Inverse folding.
């Protein structure tokens, strides 16, 4: 079998020791491990059969300003909802949204194992003021981002630093980006 892991899986699970024995067996048993440069540094302890993919970089020819302004500003939270959604600062975004008046519209574009828990949290804070959309495929992201007036990308609560492709895509589209952490790369 060939194993390809998600971007943060190696750090979340192997570094923390969670499922260490099982994951080591899966990695060592794979014919090939498809990873990124960060994952290769960690997984190289268990496999010398890795293939490292170049990092994804948003293509400015795909992500360009093509806005129509909404009558009411539409603010969005976009991302994978896992059990650790508070690490993504999503609870702080909801604290902000709940204090905005009714002249704003809100949408969460997400899916994942923590989505129902997050939906309950949002409903307690905001009732039915938030629209929900399932995650869109990559080729639909430019259209989605251009339909929005602002996107929240919060990172300060994450247990380890990440590089947000979404933030770059939002900036390429000329959509307003709200961040809680900024670091020059």
């Amino acid at each position: 079998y060939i194993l390809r892991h998600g971007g943060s899986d190696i750090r979340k699970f192997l570094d923390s020791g969670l499922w260490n024995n099982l994951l080591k067996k899966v990695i060592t048993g794979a014919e090939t491990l498809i990873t990124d440069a960060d994952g290769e540094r960690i997984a190289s302890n268990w496999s010398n059969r890795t293939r490292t993919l170049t990092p994804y970089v948003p293509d400015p020819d795909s992500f360009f300003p093509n806005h129509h302004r909404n009558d009411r500003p539409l603010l969005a939270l976009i991302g994978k909802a896992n059990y650790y959604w508070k690490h993504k600062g999503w609870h702080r975004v909801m604290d902000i949204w709940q204090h905005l008046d009714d002249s704003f519209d809100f949408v969460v574009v997400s899916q994942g194992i923590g989505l129902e828990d997050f939906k309950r949290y949002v409903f307690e804070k905001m009732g039915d003021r938030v629209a929900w959309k399932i995650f869109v495929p990559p080729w639909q992201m430019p259209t989605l981002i251009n339909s929005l007036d602002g996107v929240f990308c919060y990172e300060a609560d994450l247990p380890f630093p990440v590089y947000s492709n979404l933030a770059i895509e939002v900036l390429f589209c000329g959509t307003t980006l709200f961040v809680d952490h900024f670091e020059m790369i």
Observations:
- Residues 61 and 172 are 9 Å apart (CA to CA).
- The chain has seven helices and eight strands.
